[in-house]
Amino acid sequence: MADAYPWQTALWQQLAGRAQHAHAYLLHGPAGIGKRSLAERLMARLLCQRPVGLDACGQCKACHLLAAGTHPDNFVLEPEEADKAIKVDQVRELVNFVVQTAQLGGRKVVLVEPAEAMNPNAANALLKSLEEPSGDTVLLLISHQPSRLLPTVKSRCVQQACPLPSEAMSLAWLAQALPECTDEQHRELLCLSAGSPLAAVRMQSQDVREQRAQVVEGIKKLLKQQIAPSQLAESWNAVSLPLLFDWFCDWAQLMLRYQMTRDEAGLGQADMRKVVQYLAEKTAQPKVLTMQDWLLAQRHKVIGKANLNRVLLLEALLVQWASLPGPG
Question: Which domains does the chain have, with CATH numbers?
């Protein structure tokens, strides 16, 4: 059975304790908080032949088949390749599954993740199954970005928000999950992952703290004219583009906030505080706004998997960043 996370206890009791289940749920919330585990736990509970309280028994034929990945009444729909779209042909296969009779005589359960990966044709193909699933079928849709879903898809589901755990709960969990890190490193990881503890663990395994330190060091050298934008862009090969654009968008926003409030407590993480303050004080606000617009537009392309020349894009970013201080 999927792991249970302490911050999901109340949500689990509410979901699993329902006397009657909806035919479609949309579990939505930030990435890295355990929505997939929650959905898998619910899937196991819905397919189990002898549930024990709110959980699957783990011992019946259905539970054994699910654990082996061979349950005939279970269908998981994901992109065929990581970060790619879910295609209409995949959804048609799902629709065929939904209209069939359950082979074990119980429910059929479908899990779709991430739901926003469905292209418009795929999402439209799913609508009829969402509206009138045949037999006792439950569809579990997981979304990290529900704003990207068609309104018609959202309106056919019971929407269940999955909130971020509190900082205290996340830090307590990280202390057990990453005992090799210090309390300060746990805080740093949680900050880098925007409060998502599972994303924090993933970032630790991907050396994101070290990558962040490398990026910050590079920016300081760039502003002191100790390194050229092209050279710096080449040196960041190991850092993911979405992460870089998240950081630069964040820094631009912090600069604007400081220009409007002059609040030194709102300058973000310690590693870039002085740089953000310096740039905010030395750059005309219209220039920061123009930079922010450009960053958001490029970030949208990066997230949308547009075919971009990585080095040229980063070089363009760094040339603009280096020219921020000064007359606007």
Answer: 6-161 (3.40.50.300), 238-322 (no CATH)
